[in-house]
Specification:
Length: 278
Amino acid sequence: MPGRMNGKVALITGGGNGLGRATALRFAEEGAAGIVIADLLPDPGQESVALVQALGVPAVYCPLDAARRQDNEAMVATALDHFGQIDVLLTAAGVSHGGYRSGDLDASRKRLAERIDHVASPWVPFLDLSVDEFQAVLDVNLTGTLLAVQAVAAHLVLVERPGSIITVASIMARSDTGPVPYNVSKAGVWMLTKIAARVLAPRRIRVNAIGPGYVSTNMTAALTEMPPDLLGPFMAAIPMGRLGEPREIANTALFLASDESSYFTGELLHPDGGFFTG
Ligand SMILES: NC(=O)c1ccc[n+]([C@@H]2O[C@H](COP(=O)([O-])OP(=O)(O)OC[C@H]3O[C@@H](n4cnc5c(N)ncnc54)[C@H](O)[C@@H]3O)[C@@H](O)[C@H]2O)c1
């Protein structure tokens, strides 16, 4: 049966966990020709590769520190070595705070507890915010997105091939509550996406962003354990009353990757359970 990713090779940063892994699997179900899983963490990265291969789709792991230009260039070279072409990029590598390590739930709980301590005095973490913390989040979320987009687009321009680039912003890109470095990084991803879409459109390269609401992944695992007095108002901000599932975001990525979205570029789509209806 023809799939919506037939003949397409996809490169997924942050493909070892969460939204990146779910998208890799969804692309594989739709008959992708090959998938590169690029991630900082080799074990979950290799696990994603095995899961994709189990669906009958060739996949390869590529070590990546998203913030390093040479790693992003090596990721493109890996895709070309193994599959000879690139059609789709999803930039799902991301951190919620400096030192974030996907799957380290204890560290995430500790971080969240610090935020909760300051709910009534939000100016304290703002005034205490260190440059190191700010920079660490921007390095991965924003600079990392720029470097991946540059590396893939440079190749596509060179070989005169069309492509679809999908970045991952967040509802936080348009919200003024939340951790400053994260929200600012995601607002930056949104603007970067719009500019890249404009300059790359004449080369038939589409660039769109996904701005998910809260989704059940390692990044939000600690949030869902919050005490009822905090969890209640948090959930009340989501009209659908639940977190999203990674597959629901993967379906958005699939739409943007496939030819069904052929007239979309520079768009920010929000799979968010209605967060922005207010
Ligand atoms: N989960 C949510 O609610 C949510 C909502 C909106 C946006 N997002 C964004 O979606 C993206 C994916 O997040 P997730 O929820 O799947 O989290 P996750 O922790 O499950 O996955 C993130 C992946 O990125 C990888 N990564 C982190 N730093 C990296 C680096 N420097 N280089 C390469 N890989 C790196 C991690 O190893 C991990 O595999 C992030 O950009 C996040 O900000 C998540």
